[in-house]
């Protein structure tokens, strides 16, 4: 009964910073509240990085486990959201490499087509689906380091500064890596017969 009360004691008025401090003192209820507040963000990012719901669930779970184990090291130089985002990116990177050794992903089966327009025209939707499929195949061919940056910038709309914080690199490095990723994508797309 006391565990239930403890898990429910944190309202929306309690800041993430306060929850982090309590978590650092060993309060599992505080950390569970942080998980609750960030689970959609973490899963969404994991899914965008892996393209597979099952692997995204594994990434999200592992990211929170890593965060709990490292919560003592969190200094508060960034927000908890930025910190867990960075852990998620690193976890996706690691688990995706392991997953590629065990099974291959069929990107057409794991990701829904990107819909650019709300039009109901079947011809437009078919063209959009074909284009989406080509872009997904091209993205899948670039190294994961580059794919992460492209997805953060072009799909999620993150700034260079945010990308730098998430990946723990300089803003200049983020810009250079994004430029190189775009060049690689352009090269791949030029080679694909559409």
Explained architecture:
The chain has 194 residues and is an all-alpha fold. It folds into 2 domains: 1-103, Rna Polymerase Sigma Factor, Chain: A; 112-194, Arc Repressor Mutant, subunit A (Orthogonal Bundle). Helix content is 75%, strand content 0%. The chain contains 10 helices and no strands. The chain has helices at 2-8, 16-24, 28-50, 53-70, 80-102, 107-110, 122-141, 144-155, 160-167, 171-191. Helix 2 packs across helix 3 (28-50), helix 5 crosses helix 9 and helix 9 (160-167) packs across helix 10. The longest helix is centred in the N-terminal third of the chain and has 23 residues, at 28-50. It is elongated, with a radius of gyration of 19 Å.
CATH class (first level) name of the largest domain = Mainly Alpha
Helical fraction equals over 70%
Strand content: under 5%
CATH fold-level label of the largest domain: Rna Polymerase Sigma Factor, Chain: A
The CATH homologous superfamily of the largest domain is named: RNA polymerase sigma factor, region 2, helix turn helix motif
Mean pLDDT: 77
Q: Major sheet: size, sense and barrel closure?
A: none
Please state the structural category. mainly alpha
């Amino acid at each position: 009964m006391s565990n239930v009360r403890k898990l429910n004691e944190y309202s929306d008025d309690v800041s993430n910073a306060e929850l982090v401090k309590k978590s650092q003192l060993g309060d599992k209820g505080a950390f569970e509240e942080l998980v609750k507040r960030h689970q959609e963000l973490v899963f969404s990012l994991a899914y965008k990085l892996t393209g597979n719901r099952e692997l995204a669930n594994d990434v999200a779970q592992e990211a929170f486990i890593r965060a709990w184990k490292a919560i003592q090291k969190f200094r508060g130089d960034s927000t908890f959201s930025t910190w867990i985002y960075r852990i998620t990116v690193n976890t996706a990177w690691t688990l995706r490499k392991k997953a590629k050794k065990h099974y291959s992903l069929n990107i057409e089966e794991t990701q829904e087509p990107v819909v650019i327009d709300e039009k109901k025209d079947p011809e437009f939707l078919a063209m959009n689906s074909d284009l989406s499929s080509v872009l997904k195949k091209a993205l899948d061919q670039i190294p994961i380091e580059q794919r992460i940056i492209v997805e953060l910038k072009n799909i999620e709309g993150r700034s260079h500064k945010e990308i730098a914080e998430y990946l723990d690199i300089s803003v200049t490095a983020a810009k250079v890596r994004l430029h190189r990723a775009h060049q690689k994508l352009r090269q791949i797309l030029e080679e694909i017969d559409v």
